[in-house]
Design a protein that fits this description.
Strand content: over 45%
Low-confidence stretches: none
Number of helices: 0
Order of helices and strands: EEEEEEEEEEE
Distance between the termini: 34 Å
Amino acid sequence: QLVESGGGWVQPGGSLKLSCTASQSVSIYHMAWYRQAPGKQRELVARMLPGGERTYYLDAVKGRLTISGDDDENTIYLQMNHLLPEDTAVYYCNLGLRYWGQGTQVTVSP
């Protein structure tokens, strides 16, 4: 079971940090964050390969969003900086290409 938190409303240029807490260590698994905006398909935003040394980011978020994992907290994080209105979506975490979080709404607007 994955439990997400940290979403909310923020003005353009602001920051949020999303959390996704698991019942086990996370870094030995593939970790990822996806998002789905209204009327659009779910898209991969960021992922980290097992071991935490290799990451991938959607071009639109490079340099602004950072994925990380913490085995002491059994948590996957998504640090989101310099947010834009087009980042507005429901964000979902994924662990091991199998387990999904419940989703958390991120809204970026004036």
